[in-house]
Design goal:
Radius of gyration: 27 Å
Number of helices: 12
Structural class: alpha+beta
Shape: globular
Length: 738
Amino acid sequence: MQQLEVRTDLTVVGGGLAGICAAIGAARQGSTVALVQNRPVLGGNSSSEVRVWVCGATAHGTQSFARETGIMGELFVENQYRNPLGNPYYWDLVLLEAVRAEPLISLYLNTDVRTVEAGDGVIQSVTGWQMGSEKEIRFVSPVFADCSGDGLVGVLAGADYRTGREPRSLYGESWAPEIPDGNTLGSTILFYTKDAGEPVRFVPPSFARDITETAIPARRIIRSDLNGCAYWWIEWGGELDVVDDNERIRDELQGVVYGIWDYIKNSGQFDADTLTLEWIGSVPGKREYRRFLGDHVLTQHDVLEQTLFDDRVAFGGWSIDLHPPGGVYAAERGSKHWHPDGNYHIPLRSLYSRNVQNLWMAGRNISASHVAFGTTRVMATCAVLGEAVGIGAAVALRNGLTPRELARDRFDLMRQALTRSDASVLGLVDNDPANLALTASVTASSTLTRPAVEVSSGTLPLTTDIAMVVPIDPSLDGFELLVDSSGGTLTVELHDPVKPQNYLPAALVDSCTVEVPAGEKRWIHVPLSWRPEQPGNGIVVLRQTPAISVHTAATALPGMIYFAHREPAPDEQWTEQFRAWKHILPRAGLCLRLGETSAYSPSKVLGGYARPYGGPNLWSSEDLAWDPEPWIELSWSNPVSLSQVTVILDDDVQEDLINLHHHRTPFEAIPTLVSDYTLEARNGDTPWHPIATITANHQRTRHHHLPTPFEATHLRLTTQSTNGTPRAHITAIRTYGS
């Protein structure tokens, strides 16, 4: 047996998505990191050992323009490229390679941290046992991040925490119980099946549950074609201690799985003769345990009211999703949901301990009430919290600050680091003084100034209300729609969504009734108008008119999405606005002609927001048929010294990507991404100097480091091709000196 000591700037305990992103986030800030994981693979609940879907702010497509950027966004996009079929082992590889790509990270798999040395509110070290190699390893760092899920490091260090459900009186949360209790969300074990192509019998083990003696067949959906997370409701242990009783919970869950499989195979109710079990989990996927207390406890009110924190470092969008403590045996439905009107913010003050001064936390153990935890617990949200913790830990350490001092006194440092990292934060303006591009002027070979989609792919009758999001910059002065009509009138409304991250009709701005004569493929003018105080989105609602059909198009304009009116399912509790609308026409739209707009102007690549937020926030060229190699150019009146150029492309954050089986996205590279481009610079009238030539790109963010600084007055990016979209889209161009 060896006894080792490892010294790094940051020790991250936990190799799930929160820990992975914390480690990468800190390493990219220049900190050395020890990433300590007690399993043989990375990924936590998302790994091939447990196989839970990575859900996040998109809420399976419920929220709009909500997919995460930053490190989690990179993982989503890379997995889509490498692993479009959702193979869980390929997902493991995506995560492992992302960690191994960072030279400042030292990875310790199979290493279970068991002891913590701490005193006077400070952690000195943590010690773990590396199974298989019989090594006892002591990790010494000035700061630590507990991304372990269960929160063992924090509790051994004496950090304040809660488990279970707080009383309603504590935070005034309507979904909290009147009387507090120790109930939590339970754990889950999943299974996969396959068709063997020949009859396969199943002899159930003695411990398989007879589910016909329970409420499971009546209360849960069981089908022979379902796999993996489609059985998320195989959950139990919420009335126990999910850590102390972990072995009992595992045994019970496996008994339930085999009982369900026995029911599918042997009840005679399913066409399952040739099906066999391919995989069953042996590690329970835990949902909830300790929640540490920070300087702010996120609550139901923060989520539903979308509190705009000054120290916001991440966002979420999943519903408040709570499950009955009885889990799979409960008579109630398996979950209840309360969706916010759009994405909500999470502050830095919820990501560090209030009484252990060098302890950060990310994942399901952050400072949140049980009710708010119901939304922050999903893994893509845990991941963006991890990136924020990694960046925060590195920035604070570099500047000699505690986490509290960074959040309260020097959050400007954190904001600049988040911006430069392209982190998942809403409403984050790039005003980094180090970004030389902010002092440049910008021109382009063409710009989408009068956007229109005129080629019909079919029709959609207005048998229900249809809504569409329209970017308004600086004003809307009417538009045209292509319709078929048997005659009559069409009522159209224009609404303000009020919050820039929301995409719902919230406040009526204008309305009109348009006479529509009978005929096919008629362009009608809709005279709605609005000049908002700031550029933003408007929500146009076409009221139900069965005598009129609107023409659909195979493509959509940037930033435009469409909804149809709907009614909620019985278990859904949504706000009155959100419950009424469901996305339609994915990657497509309506035939329309908008008036002149600045929504896609070249200036959008400088400063501002690097994702949709009150508008698409990107430059779009005209169609490639008119401008086959569009370029955008930055110019400075005096030479600047360029050492790095960062290009942020449009990876269509409206597209809902997922790591494992849930739905299939029909492409490997995101179509809106530029595929081939060149980057070149010059000083005055000298010839263009090549900086980079990129081909077959499938990534959102590209960092181009110059081997030696280059004095430049002009910088030009020229697009040769995209991954499918008919225009070039550039979200941001940032330049930095030495």
